[in-house]
Amino acid sequence: MTLSLLFWLTLAAAGVGFWWQSDRVRSFAYQYVLNYSREHDLQLLDQSLVLVGLKPVRGDEGGLHLRRRYRFEFSTTGEIRYKGWIEMNGVRMQKLDVEPHVLASSPTDETLH
Length: 113
Description:
By secondary structure, this protein is an alpha+beta fold. The chain has one domain. Helices cover 33% and strands 38% of the residues. The chain has one helix spanning 3-39; strands spanning 43-58, 64-75, 82-89, 92-98.
């Protein structure tokens, strides 16, 4: 086995490992967003998260992790789209933010929003 072949195999293995870990973190993030949406009566639109940021950070224990920031869209009434963001430090949720949004009114609620 030549040195260049070993290099390319190592690079390919690192790429597959990175892809696998990224998919795992995205699955955790999706579950956090889905649970948040259910708890707050929000409709998660398009059933997807979009990676918008990736940077190395130190964790609480001092280890190096990748902080991933995902964007998602949600609605309260089904008519207007709002944006939300979730930050993951490894597989732990660091922060979840949503844009200010109109609350969906219940059928018995007679107040205007």
